[in-house]
Automatic annotation (TrEMBL):
Belongs to the dUTPase family. This is Deoxyuridine 5'-triphosphate nucleotidohydrolase. It comes from Kaistella yananensis. This enzyme is involved in nucleotide metabolism: it produces dUMP, the immediate precursor of thymidine nucleotides and it decreases the intracellular concentration of dUTP so that uracil cannot be incorporated into DNA. Its EC number is 3.6.1.23. Substrate binds at residues 63-65, 76, 80-82. The keyword Transferase does not apply.
């Protein structure tokens, strides 16, 4: 699938790190390092703008290495980029560790997955079909 993209950053386009990767790494595009104090969140620029085809979204997700090694994650994960959005892609990072963390220009900060989606049309009814689970939720299926 071809996707139109504008790269205003100093870095390469997002790419898959292996042949079977689902996500492409996104890079920080910064004029100066950004430090996240414990429990602090900041919007990190990527310098990328894109035009997704109708019926697709881009999902911004955390990088597992940053999460396990540094406690850094994407706050609204997965963040959705809609097909009609034309602004710069930004990543909301949050520091869940007890130590400050510095994001430098060119750091891989998140991954982006391109996903197909459906558009729902509501069918308002008075009754839903019955299942074994019924209304059980939040831990109701485990002991």
């Amino acid at each position: 699938m071809k996707i139109k993209i504008i790269n205003r950053s100093k870095h390469a386009l997002p790419k898959y790190q292996t042949a079977l990767s689902a996500g492409m790494d996104l890079y920080a595009n910064l004029d100066a390092p950004v430090t996240l104090k414990p429990l602090e969140r900041k919007l990190i620029a990527t310098g990328l703008l894109m035009e997704l085809p109708q019926g697709y979204e881009a999902q911004v997700r955390p990088r597992s290495g940053l999460a396990i090694k540094n406690g850094i994650t994407v706050l609204n994960t997965p963040g959705t980029i809609d097909a009609d959005y034309r602004g710069e892609i930004g990543v909301i990072l949050v520091n869940l560790s007890a130590e400050s963390f510095t994001v430098n220009d060119g750091d891989r900060i998140a991954q982006m997955v391109i996903a197909k989606h459906e558009t729902a049309i509501w069918d308002e009814v008075d009754k839903l079909s019955e299942t074994d689970r019924g209304e059980g939720g939040f831990g109701s299926t485990s002991k």
